[in-house]
Each structure stands twice: as C-alpha cells, then as structure tokens.
UniProtKB/TrEMBL annotation:
It holds the Pfam family Aldolase_II. This is Class II Aldolase and Adducin domain protein. Keywords: Lyase, Metal-binding. GO terms for biological process: pentose catabolic process. Residues 8-185 form the Class II aldolase/adducin N-terminal domain.
Length: 212
C-alpha cells in the first residue's frame, strides 16, 4: 500500500534531482515502483518543486491511474521499463546541461568511457535513440527496448533516461552521465577513453566480477 511516507520520500528525491540541476522547470520526470503500483510525476509538473497533488499513482501492469492525477506524458516508457525489468524500481528521465548538449550534437560520441565511473556506474555502452516526438508511442517503444539490457540511454535532441534499483543508484548514474558529457564537451572533442582491457580490469578488481 502506498502511504504518505512514500509520497514524501518521492517528493524529496524529486527535489534532490532538481537541486542537482538534472531537471529544470517542467523538464524530466521520475517514477518509483511500490509493489504493483508506481508513483509517477504528474503531467506538466516541475520535478524540482514537485508537490504531492501532482504525483500520479499508476498500476504498473495496466497503466490505470488510481488517484485521478494524470501521469507524465512519458509514463509509457516509465511503466514499460518497470514491467520489463523486475530488478528496476526507479526510472529518471532528465535533461542536464552537458548531457543534453551532447544529445543535440550532429556527431555524437560512440564511447562515453572517459573515466572509470562511467563503465562502473553509468554503463559500458550507452545507446543513442533517434528523435521521436516526446510522449509518442514510438519513443516509449524505443526506450523500453533499449533499456531491456542497458541502464542509461541518450535521446537525440531530447535528453537522457537512467534506471536502477533505488534512488541513490539512479542519482549516481545520472550525475556521472552528466560528468562524462561535461568532459566530452569541455574537451572540445579532444578526449581519451578507457581501453577494453582497462574496463575489464575495473570489472575484476573494482567491481569484483568478470566481464560478460
């Protein structure tokens, strides 16, 4: 059962995202799995100053709205990811400064592994989704498909999506995603990336696992 404590935690996490300038004004949206339902920031809401009356409660399986609050236009991919990924509890769509600049580049990076934090936390590969109209079924389908086996993606001329098991993991992914893009932009394209062997060493010696 969703309680007031759940709502207050969701608001606090939304405000943290805003305080970090991962979203501004009405950009971006956030969702959180609680049992068979999800809290989703409401359509037109401002994530940095989200209020309880703008939080939608949706059934994950059916998309049915349980409290009369219309969810974000991007709820299609939020709920789709939660349906496809039982390991995921939080989904964040954000539009931070440098990562969104990269999303609008004609020649986008093919490798974001500029520091160890990227393969360790953001993902060794970051799919780039073509532009689809925000809120469209085409965008929702493309995002859900890409997120079946990735935790971070870039949306052309739009923004970014990250997912994870909890709020801290998602926040960390988003922040390191933005950090990598800041390095890429501020280096004016003159940057190096980790080699496959260096990434494999991270898997073994830092994360304690072998590369798939």
């Amino acid at each position: 059962m969703i309680t007031n404590e759940h709502i207050q935690e969701f608001l606090a996490q939304a405000h943290r995202v805003g305080d970090a300038r991962l979203t501004i004004c009405s950009s971006g949206n956030l969702s959180w799995r609680i049992g068979e339902e999800a809290l989703v920031s409401g359509t037109g809401s401002w994530v940095p100053s989200l209020q309880a009356e703008k939080v939608s409660i949706c059934n994950i399986a059916t998309g049915e709205v349980k409290n009369g609050v219309k969810p974000s236009m991007e709820s299609g991919f939020h709920l789709g990811i939660l349906r496809e990924r039982p390991d995921v509890n939080v989904v964040l769509h954000f539009q931070s400064e440098y990562a969104t600049a990269v999303a609008c580049m004609n020649k986008k990076p093919t490798n974001f592994n500029v520091t160890a934090e990227v393969p360790c936390h953001v993902g060794r590969e970051i799919p780039v989704i073509p532009y689809y109209r925000p809120g469209s079924p085409e965008l929702a389908h493309a995002v859900v498909e890409a997120m079946k086996d990735h935790n971070s993606i870039l949306l052309t001329n739009h923004g970014q999506v990250v997912c994870g098991s909890n709020f801290d993991q998602v926040f960390e992914r988003a922040m390191f995603f933005e950090m990598a893009c800041r390095i890429i932009v501020q280096s004016h394209g003159d940057y190096s990336v980790l080699t496959p062997q260096e990434i494999e060493d991270l898997d073994i010696y830092v994360l304690g696992k072998k590369t798939k």
